[in-house]
């Protein structure tokens, strides 16, 4: 009897001990990160899936990315329209790798930032001078009262599909060529868009541009203007590969871009200057003339999923590292913003697009802007 009582006491004590142990039913942080990483690797078809050493190295970077994403979202959600950050195709890259692979294609001038003033249009048109001449005194953004609240050139059918520059550092060419194609379509009475041959420009542009190793939007526009270079339709590209374009393609005259309008891809004039305190002029040009080209600092876009960027995007001129096309704006939104077309494919951001708040020169979007006029 005594032995039975002792056995029951032992069972009771053991049971009480287990009841007092706090069980954690949630998976550990490492296991949860591993699960997300496994999904990430399959989703983006990463080549190191079966390479144990590389897989583990990329997993550690991925965990660091998850921590940064939590920090960004913890500070950035001022309103429902604010930018949201998360796992993108770049979440397994270190910051150094991301910059080297995707943001090293915009060449920088050794000269001071204002050296780009030499590219300002010398126009006889008083209307165009009003668009580009301004006071640099600091002031609050003046939202024009006589412009539409929403401008989105995509809805007019003049904006081509989002490109993916891949391993070719060609943002400087893609942003300019896409904008030229849009402006050519706007000039037509039927607004018909003809895609142009980016590859030809990447390969042929001189004036300090280096093909897939990088270039500069201002130098490209200067070269296009001085050479009266007609880009040619995308269908005239001998090979749809920005890395491999036959050398003789630069001297060959491409077929007319549009029937009866052979000069619609020739740049006549352009600007390359700052509108840091005069973003209302950018809005006016977007509404009345069409898309524009801008250099930006895109380092914080590494984890961008959508929404309007309002923070975490430095505007220093020295940090400009990428080129994009601005294809519209939305003033009627909770956070007024630009509609920015990127060149990292449709899986990036908002189907390839970025929204950037107006009026704060976020990401340096107003530091170096190009208005383009075609012949």
Automatic annotation (TrEMBL):
SUPFAM superfamilies listed in its UniProt record: Cysteine proteinases
UniProt name for this protein: Peptidase C1A papain C-terminal domain-containing protein
GO biological process: proteolysis
Recorded family membership: Belongs to the peptidase C1 family.
Domain (Peptidase C1A papain C-terminal): residue spans on this chain: 147-373
One annotated GO molecular function: cysteine-type peptidase activity
Pfam families: Inhibitor_I29 (PF08246), Peptidase_C1 (PF00112)
Organism: Anopheles atroparvus
Source lineage: Eukaryota, Metazoa, Ecdysozoa, Arthropoda, Hexapoda
SMART domains (alphabetical): Inhibitor_I29, Pept_C1
InterPro entries linked: Papain-like_cys_pep_sf, Pept_cys_AS, Peptidase_C1A, Peptidase_C1A_C, Peptidase_C1A_papain-like, Prot_inhib_I29
Every Cathepsin propeptide inhibitor domain range: 37-98
UniProt KW keywords: Disulfide bond, Hydrolase, Protease, Thiol protease, Zymogen
PANTHER family per record: CYSTEINE PROTEASE FAMILY C1-RELATED
């Amino acid at each position: 009897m005594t032995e039975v009582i002792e056995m029951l006491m032992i069972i009771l004590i053991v049971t009480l001990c287990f009841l007092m142990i706090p069980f954690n039913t949630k998976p550990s942080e490492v296991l949860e990160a591993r699960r997300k990483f496994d999904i990430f690797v399959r989703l983006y078809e990463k080549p190191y899936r079966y390479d144990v050493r590389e897989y583990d190295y990329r997993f550690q970077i991925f965990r660091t990315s998850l921590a940064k994403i939590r920090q960004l979202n913890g500070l950035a959600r001022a309103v429902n329209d604010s930018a949201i950050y998360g796992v993108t195709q770049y979440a397994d890259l270190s910051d150094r790798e991301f910059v080297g692979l995707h943001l090293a294609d915009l060449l920088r001038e050794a000269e001071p930032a204002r050296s780009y003033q030499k590219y300002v249009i010398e126009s006889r048109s008083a209307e165009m001078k009003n668009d580009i001449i301004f006071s640099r005194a600091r002031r609050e953004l003046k939202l024009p009262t006589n412009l539409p609240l929403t401008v989105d050139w995509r809805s007019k059918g003049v904006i081509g599909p989002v490109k993916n520059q891949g391993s070719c550092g060609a943002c400087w060419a893609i942003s300019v060529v896409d904008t030229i194609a849009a402006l050519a379509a706007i000039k037509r009475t039927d607004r018909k868009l003809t895609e142009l041959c980016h590859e030809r420009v990447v390969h042929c542009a001189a004036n300090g541009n280096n093909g897939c190793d990088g270039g500069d939007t201002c130098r490209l526009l200067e070269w296009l203007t001085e050479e009266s270079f007609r880009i040619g339709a995308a269908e005239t590209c001998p090979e749809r590969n920005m890395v491999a374009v036959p050398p003789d393609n630069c001297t060959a005259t491409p077929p007319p871009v549009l029937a009866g309008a052979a000069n619609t891809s020739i740049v006549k004039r352009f600007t390359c200057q700052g509108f840091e305190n005069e973003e209302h002029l950018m809005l006016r040009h977007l509404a009345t003339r069409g898309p524009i080209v801008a250099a930006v600092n895109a380092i914080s876009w590494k984890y961008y999923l959508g929404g309007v960027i309002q923070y975490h995007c430095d505007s220093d001129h020295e940090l400009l590292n990428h080129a994009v096309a601005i294809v519209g704006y939305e003033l009627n939104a909770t956070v007024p913003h630009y509609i920015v077309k990127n060149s990292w494919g449709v899986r990036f951001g908002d189907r390839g697009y970025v929204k950037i708040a107006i009026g704060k020169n976020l990401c340096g979007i107003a530091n170096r802007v190009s208005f383009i006029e075609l012949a």
